[in-house]
Amino acid sequence: MAEKYDVPTIPKTRPAVVWWAWIGGIWLLFWAYVLIRWMTGPYFTPVPAGAVPVPGWMDMIMTVWQIANYPLLALGLYFLAYKPWRRNRTITLDGMLIIAFMFMSLQDSCSNFFGYWYTMNSHFFNMGSFVNDIPGWMAFGRPGAQVPWAIFFHPFEYTIGFFAFCFIGSGLMNFFRTRFNLKPLMLIIVVFPVCMVFDLVIEGLFQTLGFYTMAGGKISFFPDTYEKFPLIETFFIALMAVSVISLRYFKNDKGETLVERGLNSMVISDVKKQLVRCLALIGATQCIFLFTYNIPIAAYMGSNPGVWPTDVISRPYWNDGLCGAGTDRLCPGPGVPLTQQAWVTTLPAGQHVPEEDWISRSFEPATGKALRRDDGMKNPELGDGKCRPFNSRFMGRVSKDRCDTLLCIEGIKPNLPNWNWW
Residues with Cβ < 8 Å from 411, sequence gap 6 or more? Predict the structure, then answer.
């Protein structure tokens, strides 16, 4: 009689690519939820450019950019994704990254989560933005008054921008690796300052062309113009760019990136393998954007933006209906609290603030001229409990103190005879 032996079982472990694919799938479900809410809700409406026309040269450049955007993206997808798939049932890494970079553009305005420091030129064709449909979003916004997501700008901007970073960074890494035999960490250190300089040039060009402005930046070049450029921007963009470059450049002996590890050992069809790869790269790039840029920038500048230049406040196509010209809302500045839903407004000439509405502490008068607009929207009442500062959940007490004092908790006459709280 044959003896029975217990055959040891080898535990099955999921390769890294599967975990990253799950992360990518979760990101896609999240964006699907947000986009569906946006397209079926009140925020799916254009942010108007306002009564002040953009300069003719700016209008021409923006029009050409928007017309050329998707045909160039289609060419990239054809040569890097479709042709390789037809030839050998695989898609190049760069073909996958085109798709991942396009999805990265959905995070473009997320650094405004706590408060607005960056705005888009609303002369771009837009249907508003989905950011106010993101669960937990704290920055002020209403239909027609948001930083717009430019349908014919953002997807191509991220694709061409990150490919430029990848090609320059990979080329430099190849050079220093072959010439000086540098290790991965040293390659990253060498490429980092190059990415900072490259970002300064490219984003500086985009701002000069009027595509967007970093109005609420701090420690900036050109602080009094729409070309205001905060120095910290170059550091965090370089941090994000180097992370993407490293993801693309460093591969194992099977040609797999860090998030594709284990793909070749999976016994699944070619179609499923490409789908898993794509989801893994989407998950990785989304996490890179969130953790290397959006969270630190939202914490540093979005939660407490700097003073917006008059050059931005006075042009409705840059203030996006959030504050300044064409609105009755004050833009960020000294003494202006950051609030989620309530408004800080100027009073018409000759009117005064009643004593019962005086705030309790003295603040320096805010700069910039705020104009009224009668658009039928009802402002929150003074005591309706909607005074919630952008940074109360994350960045300490500064805006919370300012917000609380506006609720007249002490009733001391302030040094602001011409401001009111609605």
Answer: 356, 358, 360
pLDDT in tens, 1-30: 555 555 555 446 778 889 999 999 999 999
Alpha-carbon Rg for the chain, nearest whole angstrom, is 25
SS3 127: coil
The CA-based angle 338-293-344, given to 5 degrees, is 10
Helix pair 270-289, 93-104: axis angle to 10 deg: 40
| Host domain of residue 84 | 16-307
Q: How many domains does the chain have?
A: 2
- Do 389 and 339 touch, CB atoms closer than 8 A? yes
Same domain, 260 and 341: no
The answer to the question of residue 8 being in a domain is no
**Residues 323/330, Cβ–Cβ less than 8 Å:** yes
Q: 210's torsion region: left (phi>0), alpha (psi -120 to 50) or beta?
A: left
pLDDT tens per residue across span 280-317: 999 999 999 999 999 999 988 887 788 888 888 888 88
CA distance 319 to 188: 37
How far apart are alpha carbons 249 and 256 in whole angstroms? 10
**210: phi then psi, degrees, rounded to nearest 5:** 90, 15
- Close Cβ partners of 67 (under 8 Å, ≥ 6 residues apart): 152
Closest C-alpha to 274, from 109, 104, 82: 82
Residue 87 CB burial class (10 angstroms; 0-12, 13-18, ≥19):
exposed
Question: Quick check: is 353 in a domain?
Answer: yes
Residue at 283 is within a domain: yes
Distance CA 16, CA 247 (A): 14
Yes or no: say if 249 and 191 are a contact pair by the CB < 8 Å rule: no
Cα–Cα distance between 42 and 238 in angstroms, integer? 36
pTM of the model: 0.78
Tally of CB atoms within 10 A around 194: 16
Cβ neighbours around 268 below 10 Å, total: 10
How confident is the model over 106-136, as pLDDT tens digits?
999 899 988 888 999 999 999 999 999 999 8
Extract the runs of DSSP E, i.e. beta strands, from 114-242. 119-120, 212-213, 220-221, 229-230
Say yes or no: 279 and 366 in one domain: no
Same domain for 397 and 361, yes or no, is yes
